[in-house]
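Good morning N.,

You mentioned wanting to compare the apo and holo forms, so I went ahead and generated the holo version with PBG. This is what I fed in:
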Amino acid sequence: MTNTLNFKRHRRLRSSNAMRSLVRENQVNKEDLIYPLFVVEGEKVKNEVPSMPGVYHISLDYLEEEMNELQALGIKAVILFGVPNEKDEVGTGAFHDHGIVQKATREIKNKTPEMLVIADTCLCEFTSHGHCGVIHDGDVDNDESLKLLAKTAVSQAEAGADIIAPSNMMDGFVIAIRQALDEAGFINIPIMSYAVKYASAFYGPFRDAANSTPQFGDRKTYQMDPANRLEALREAESDMDEGADFLIVKPAMSYLDIVRDVRNNFKAPIVAYNVSGEYAMVKAAAQNGWINERELVMEKLTAMKRAGAELIITYFSKDVAKWLNE
Ligand code: PBG
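and this is what came out, ligand included:
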């Protein structure tokens, strides 16, 4: 029977699993995943973060086991966040030779050298006031903070970090860190810049996990206004000019338009950060039986790839790798 109506039959390309996979444009690969880890002082510590089911604070003695598990799953990179025992005004724990991130980095690179270690470079987990820099006259002092961030990055590189990921949102942090790394001989250590980081309520569970909620005020004088789009391009542009090797957009889920904008305007690898609040929402709904967790997670991570991200930082990395291995 011939079709006399003149329309296009899109369903032809959706007729079976095999057909759909033949024409699929985007997919999540294990190689795209970066797994965030919260490391703490002490021994035999493995405490679940209450607002992030399945995410733990772990002590150094569990790192080897953790890395073996990740490698067996096919995950090649971790990003480290430190939760120190002690904090002070200037965040000394961030740049101390025996800081928790430095010790964790050494441990991982000793035991499982193939694992790529990305060090989050920020002060907020280490300052008593919870801000990402040093405080003068009630505000975060940009240029004074740069000196400490540069010191932090160098000490992380000395500990063996493969990539430096500054997340503090001070102006000029990429060039300050690049210069300090180069002067210390780390010319080959790339910078994965949190170039486009919004002041977001989606970071709530992370701040519980890292105990880094600001003790006064908020982060709106340094993190970006969620209403803005051109500002993202300005931030990405200056970071590229200053020498960034990767560009992070954060959060991911509600900011896929920004991921696409950044993808269209820059040639560096783009990293989408699927943040703690995005994770917590999915977990809570899944625990209530309200959504299909596996399908929903794969759908939203695929959307990040479709928006133009090459890499995804996600607390779901292990689950996703398991599903992809099945
Ligand atoms: C530190 C930092 C934060 C996150 C990553 N690095 C918290 C913040 O800016 O308050 C958030 C990550 C997440 O929510 O998963 N500056």
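The two ends are 42 Å apart (CA to CA).

Happy to go through it together on a call whenever suits you.

Best,
F.
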